[in-house]
Amino acid sequence: MIKPDGVQRGYMGEIISRFEKKGMVCKGLKTFMTPREVAEEHYKDLSSKPFFGDLCDYICSGPVVCMVWEGPGVVKSARLMIGATNPLESAPGTIRGDLAVEVGRNVIHGSDSVESAEREIALWFGGDDELLDYEMCIKPWVREE
Ligand code: RTP
């Protein structure tokens, strides 16, 4: 998910492009104004943290871009592309390492496991009608499978 700072700074295209270039396939994408209860549910594991309220306020403060990307090892690969939570500790070349400087404005969220991804897709997307089931024309000279 591209967070409000990523949208406001005009990084939608840049971020989507990185996932496309990596070879991931987009199965869902929408702009979205986050209801407070969705933000609180999404970050419920952080509810005891002192920054929880500000984090939820922030996520709800402007449009986000929700995305579902598919591909081999996509969760692990996306986390590597996104970089460390704190942009000052994110390697150059990662999204946060290149585009952000503050932990509370780190431009993107990525699911940390397949189980989290399934939970988050169910939370952020309104059902299967918002997701596409299709195959790219990926031939054997592009993918091994
Ligand atoms: P995300 O869920 O957004 O992909 O981030 P993450 O897994 O890398 O990090 P997580 O620990 O789940 O934290 C979620 C978001 O909370 C904000 N945060 N602020 N002020 C702070 O010390 C602090 N720590 C975390 C960040 O925006 C982080 O992405």
Short structural description:
With 145 residues, the chain is of the alpha+beta class.
Main attributes of the structure:
145 residues, Alpha-Beta Plaits, two-stranded antiparallel sheet, 7 helices, binds ribavirin triphosphate
- The domain tally reads 1
| Percent helix range | 25-40%
- Shape estimate: globular
The largest pleated sheet is described as: 2 strands, antiparallel
Fold-level CATH name: Alpha-Beta Plaits
Just name the CATH architecture. Answer: 2-Layer Sandwich
Counting helices, strands and paired strands, the structural category is alpha+beta
H/E series: HHEHHEHHH
- Which whole number gives the mean pLDDT? 96
Which ligands appear in the coordinates? ribavirin triphosphate
CATH class categorisation = Alpha Beta
Fourth CATH level, the homologous superfamily: Nucleoside diphosphate kinase-like domain
Strand order of the largest sheet: 1-2
Computed CA radius of gyration, to the nearest angstrom: 15 Å
Distance between the termini: 28 Å
Q: Give the amount of beta strand, in percent.
A: 5-15%
